[in-house]
Amino acid sequence: MAYLILGLALWFAGHFFKRALPDMRANMGNAGKGVAALIILGGLVLMVVGYRQADFVNLWYPPAWTVHLNNLLMLVAVFVYGMSATKGRLRGKMRHPQLVAVKIWAVAHLLVNGDLASLVLFGGLLAWAVIEVIVINRSEEWVRPEPGPAKKDILLVVITLVMFFAITFIHNWLGVWPFPG
Fold first, then answer.
1. Residue 33 has pLDDT above 90, yes or no
2. Of 12, 57, 69, 144, which is most buried by a Cβ count within 10 Å?
3. Looking at per-residue confidence, does 27 or 135 come out higher?
4. pLDDT above 90 covers what percent of the chain?
5. pLDDT in tens, 15-29
């Protein structure tokens, strides 16, 4: 559990580096981006290792139907995450699509995992996404981008489905089949 918590701490630190220590980050120039990326990557590795090594401490038993809700929410999360890169009509409908997607992802995973390590990991990343949105909204003015052509939204749907099945494949490869049999 220590690796998991340290990983979350590094994740927070790497993402808030620019806003918490702006002068230090600015003085580092492009190297500052690299340092932040290494801190975030280190945090991600520690979160994965810590989560996989954590003792299973059950806190609650999620109902079986939550698996279906999780899968639906995951499809929505992948779509919303993709909105950040779209050039279609949906561009600009949401200020923080990636962070909203992380929130949806975290809630979806909390619905189907009732153990302590899952609460720490997914709850921690949910808290990070909420705090990140608040900090960004207070520090930066948003200029809504102009919408693009609708055909780009169709491409987003296709890419969403491909990515959703790729994520399913990765989960299966890691030994977690996300669809009930």
1. no
2. 12
3. 135
4. 70
5. 988 888 777 877 888
The amino acid present at 111, given as its one-letter code, is: L
How many Cα atoms sit within 13 Å of 136 on the Cβ side?
Answer: 14
Amino acid making up residue 81: Y
Residue 115 forms beta bridges with which residues?
58
pTM comes to: 0.90
Which tokens in the block code for residue 26? 């600015």
124-162: burial string, b at 16+ Cβ within 10 Å, e else:
bbbebbeebbeeeeeeeeeeeeebeeeebbeebeeebee
Q: What is the DSSP letter of 175?
A: T
Q: Which residues contact 99 (CB under 8 A, 6 or more apart)?
A: 129, 132, 133
DSSP-derived secondary structure letter, 93: S
Whether residue 72 sits in one domain with residue 116: yes
Closest CA to 91 of 147, 131, 43, 45: 147
Asked if 101 and 45 sit in the same domain, the reply is no
What is the span of the domain harbouring residue 37? 1-54
C-alpha distances out from residue 119 to 74, 114, 123, Å: 17, 7, 5
Block residue for tokens 């994520």 = 167
**Count: domains in the chain:** 2
